[in-house]
Specification:
It is built from 16 helices and 3 strands. It is mainly α. The chain folds into 2 domains: 171 residues, Orthogonal Bundle (Citrate Synthase, domain 1); 97 residues, Orthogonal Bundle (Cytochrome p450-Terp, domain 2). The chain binds coenzyme A.
Length: 379
């Protein structure tokens, strides 16, 4: 398909909406607490009182780490940040105008060639390696293709959030920016059977390797109806001149039946529990920045969509202004999502493997009645 237009059929059960496709002990969406829990912990609690490394440990092991476990885990992750030279060479060959999600997909897949998961006893090692390497895959390609600079891929930063910001900006980030990135990574880490996670589980159910499962998930997250929404939201917000202009333009978009990126959700019905958390950080960063226009326009969009369509911001919408206030290039928004969601994907791969049956649903047939092949001269 050349123009990305797809027919959307509202069949009963279309998109498998509302159907259970398996069991998980990792996450609930729209069921308890503020609406999102990881292994029984509410997202608001985790975002307020934990770090991304603690959440990664929780998803991979089922329990939050104690102090000793956390420091051992962080040391293990920090030791795996650098990239093999062969992968750097591949990244150098990817052009500047490549889609950054294609860079992540290639980086993940190529690392799977260099350091394959030879059997499932290595699944935690493979997941942790990807977790440590993803910030460098993203930043090494970005800095080389856009600025001609070959960056150092390891760093002494204490956290993955700080490590990523250092690779991007070449300096230790402020405490505040590190914490915002940490919270953002926590918010994006896991979300039950969303499209990309389900892709990873389907792949895992064939007993494929971790790198293939994650590569497939990246390809699924790439689509604008899933992970690409934060970038699309940024482009839209930046195209509005003021809060009043935002409302006027959005009215036109709705009249033309355009989808407004960063709004709505397949499961949540009245709000996305991640929005209130990232919105508060956006407001703080706006105040720190002095120019609050991006935040003000975003709030106007939120009000307009709720008043006119009862549609609410999902996690992506205020991530756009938040990342922009931190000076993060828009094209890296979705790859950051990858750096975080990898934890959920890998945890689901491990869970699928622990109680596996190949995922193979059926389809309702809507084609021709049984018929015979005519001779080609008679068709
Ligand atoms: N802008 C405009 N209209 C929207 C909308 C949006 N962002 N999200 C939903 N709607 C409309 C739908 O078109 C539908 O209208 P219709 O019944 O007249 O066709 C109605 O609201 C109900 O949609 P719903 O069934 O709740 O959505 P879905 O489950 O099919 O799709 C999304 C969910 C997330 C794919 C959808 O809301 C969307 O495309 N959002 C924009 C992309 C985005 O932000 N994705 C990130 C998700 S975290």
């Amino acid at each position: 398909m050349s123009d990305n237009k797809v027919a959307s059929k509202k069949l009963s059960g279309a998109g498998l909406r509302g159907q259970s496709a398996g069991e998980t002990s990792l996450c609930t969406v729209g069921q308890s607490g503020s609406g999102l829990t990881y292994c029984g912990y509410d997202i608001a609690d985790l975002a307020g009182n934990s770090t991304f490394e603690e959440v990664a440990y929780l998803l991979f092991n089922g329990e939050l780490p104690n102090e000793k476990e956390l420091s051992t885990y962080k040391a293990e992750l920090a030791g795996m940040r650098d990239l093999p030279q062969a992968l750097k060479e591949v990244l150098k060959h990817i052009p500047k105008d490549a889609h950054p999600m294609d860079v992540m997909r290639t980086g993940c897949s190529f690392l799977g060639n260099l350091e394959p998961e030879s059997d499932f006893s290595e699944q935690n090692k493979a997941a942790n390696r990807l977790l440590s390497a993803f910030p460098a895959i993203m930043c090494y390609w970005y800095k080389f293709s856009h600025h001609g600079v070959e960056i150092e891929c390891s760093s002494n930063e204490d956290s993955l959030a700080g490590h990523f910001l250092r690779l991007l900006n070449g300096e230790t980030p402020s405490e505040q920016h590190q914490r915002v990135m940490d919270v953002s990574l926590i918010l994006y880490a896991e979300h039950e059977f969303n499209a990309s996670t389900f892709t990873a589980r389907v792949c895992a159910s064939t007993l494929s390797d971790m790198f293939s499962c994650i590569t497939g998930a990246i390809g699924t997250l790439r689509g604008p109806l899933h992970g690409g929404a934060n970038e699309a939201a940024m482009d839209m917000i930046q195209s509005f001149k003021s809060p009043a202009d935002a409302k006027e333009q959005m009215a036109g978009m709705l009249a033309r039946k355009e989808k407004i990126m960063g709004f709505g959700h397949a499961i949540y019905r009245t709000s996305d529990p991640r929005n209130v958390i990232i919105k508060a950080w956006s407001e703080k960063l706006a105040a720190e920045n002095g120019d609050t226009s991006l935040y003000d326009i975003s709030v106007a969009c939120e009000e307009f969509m709720w008043d006119s369509k009862k549609l609410f911001c999902n996690a992506d919408f205020f991530h756009a202004s938040t990342y922009n206030y931190m000076g993060i290039p828009t094209k890296l928004f979705t790859p950051i999502f990858v750096c975080s969601r990898l934890t959920g994907w890998a945890a689901h791969v491990m869970e699928q493997r622990s109680n596996n049956r190949i995922i193979r649903p059926s389809a309702d047939y809507t084609g021709s009645e049984p018929r015979k092949v005519n001779a080609i001269s008679e068709r």
